[in-house]
Amino acid sequence: MTIAWDAFLSVVLTSIGGAAVIVSLYSLGVRFVTDAELLAPKAAQGDGSAVRKESFFRSVAYICFTLCAIAVLYEVYLIIPFFHK
Length: 85
Fold this sequence. Notes:
Shape: elongated
Helix content: over 70%
Structural class: mainly alpha
Mean pLDDT: 92
Distance between the termini: 26 Å
Low-confidence stretches: none
Radius of gyration: 19 Å
Number of strands: 0
Number of helices: 2
């Protein structure tokens, strides 16, 4: 029995890359939500610039969280053999 080292290396690199993408997207999402929360008091007072920035930050945060969820679901799809029939 031999080990297919090229396949093993491919799995390792893909796993590390996928994990890095998921962690980065989630971290960016949290960062943008935090920035939006910091701008919320100014936006509530009617500052137009703060309203635009807050809505932009929240939109980007939700996009990051959505992409993170899609990446997690895709990796679960790849791991579970039931889906590959």
